[in-house]
Amino acid sequence: MGNAQSRSADRAWPSFRGQCLDFIHREDQRDALYSMADLGSIRLAGLFLVDSPPGLLNERLTRALRAKHLDDGTRLDSVVSFGDPHDGLEGAEALKAMWLVEHQRWDEAADALRLASQCAFCQLPAIITREDLQRHRTKQAFLAEPRVVALWKMVGRRVDFGELGRFELFDDASCGLRAIKDEEAFQIRLAPPLPVDHRFQQHTDPHNPIVAHRINVFLQAQDHVLDEDVIEASFSSYLMHTITTRIKGASGSRESEPSVGGCG
Fold it and tell me: d(Cα 213, Cα 211) in Å, to the nearest integer?
């Protein structure tokens, strides 16, 4: 591929199937791409993709997953994967997946997936498919939601609670969320109004907000709706407590998150 010249005044940004690119390959390894942080925005990166061999972006995605580590040192590729092992993602989908891997923190969602796996509710790595990636049409749509919620929208349906349903999230008509079942009784509310002196107010995180809900997932429960709100300290707390409650049939303490391995 020859060198191309550009001027800073150029207005047209090259794109691949409508996706503007901001990375380019290194000469020593065609599947080793510089990250956005390394190079910033490179206008002519789109020309590279036109000349790239099939599967190149999927190879780069595999490398990115292998290189990404959670806070406890676990490699991300042991918890999540993208696409079917025998059918990689297309260019735009692979770009989206690479952005998610390289620029998002996965620890909270990964902890919930690992706990669900230990409770026999899912298998790891959880495979994120094309359909899952389409839960957010654009990067802006993803960033408009709390990070932990946005990630769980893509991976939650991999957690199977059996006859109750899967631990997936649904958008409702009032711009709210529902969990497990797309029914009004299964609504969850993010960042609900609380008294100023409420103990959870001291630890609020816009990426991992407080949750209010009335969903009962006890194994022996016939009625899955509680009479009063349950307030969870964060969305990740809600994920962990829902999984442990479903497997044990008892709520336990709701003030601290169980550690991974809580289903032993």
Answer: 7
